[in-house]
Amino acid sequence: MALRVYDTKSRKKRAFKTLEKGKVEMYVCGITPYSRSHLGHARCYIAFDIVHRWLEYRGFEVNYVQNFTDIDDKIIAVAETENIDFSIVSQRNIDEFFEVMDKMNVLRADHYPRVTQTIPEIIEMVSDLVKGGNAYSSEDGVYFDINSAPEKYGQLTGQTLEMVRAGAGGRVEGTGSGKKNHRDFALWKLAKPGEPSWDSPWGSGRPGWHIECSAMSLKHFGNQFDIHGGGHDLRFPHHEAEIFQSECSTGVEPVVNFWMHNGFVNIGGEKMSKSIGNFWTVSDSFERYSPLALRYALLSVPYRNPIDLTPDFLQDAANHHEKLISAYVDSLSSKDQVDVDLDKLGNSFEMAMDDDFNSRSAIIEIQKVVSSNCGIGVGDWLEKYAGCILGLLPTMDEIVSDLKKADEARGDIAERVENLLSDRNIARQNKDWNRADEIRDELNEMGVIVEDGEDGPRWKIE
Questions:
Q1: pLDDT tens readout for residues 81-99
Q2: Fewer CB atoms near the end CB (10 Å): N or C, the chain?
Q3: CA–CA distance from 58 to each of 15, 51, 62, 66, 373 (Å)?
């Protein structure tokens, strides 16, 4: 099965074909580092990490660019509140981003351009748009003129400019800025007193949000590239603005071959939001779940679908991930014959990934192997598919370290646990259920999980 990828613009899955044979140029909108990274960021960058990994597995040479919007109103507001330079705010949150993404096994992109490092290219692009009649200057900056290219409106969302005009009412007038139309958007914003700024032909200021990604992507890739990715909420206005800017400034279309967008993160059935109090940073989530268990959860739903991170869903993912690690470790020393067809399951895994990177279906194949007799060859199979492609396995050094810690912790309490299990067995034989329950509670308080089997109870540390 050839790789098929869902393109937001055409609203269908298309056979994946690159502009240059064997090479993929992929740009994914990065974070605005005004605060710590949250679960929405984790969803996005794990999703495109899978795209990155699978394309490389399929033999493509991938040039992956992900930006940082390191100057922004929110960054400036935080800097003013803390009375520090805006660059300190940006850098500390960029450092934190790399820290949490590394823990979740997200491979680094090839390039991480920043807005503050791309100012000359942004100014040049704005100048080209003004000269071409697609933008105009006003008393507070430079704006893109939507009416200069109405045919480009709504390519990702399906809206037309006429639909917007019909519903605009009185909103066009009295916008409080120098733009002519309420749908026009800022390319260059003149600085207010005390704000960070750069010199330009239109006065001291800084870039508008949308122009930044256009300038950075075209700087790295030229007039066209293969994949542009980001969260579902970026389709409008951000990505549609990029289409306006890039195609009007270069005269080349389409600027992007495949537009890809990952679904929202919901918490308990509602979109994650600070305003309703269901907002989780990635580092907050690490206090409850391991980074790779969180990765497992986020890959358990196809990237385009919304995902609802309920406690039950996250715990189920954590349990499955623990079973995966146990199966992988057990398989490394096993001399038994495997009781599943690994080649068939591998083919099913690959078919799932070739169907628009369907990680959910791929994980189902992983689970079939994990629940099998983990004999000869399973370790290599899991290392390839669960490890290299899905990024769900820690390194061997990490596994050995965790096992050592577990053995040490087990050794510290082994005698006490064995005595309690013996007392529990006597209590159960005597039908002293109150005493058996007391022992169970004591074991739970110690973080000990007991599994009763035909050969007697087995225990592990939670």
A1: 999 999 999 999 999 999 9
A2: C
A3: 14, 11, 11, 21, 29
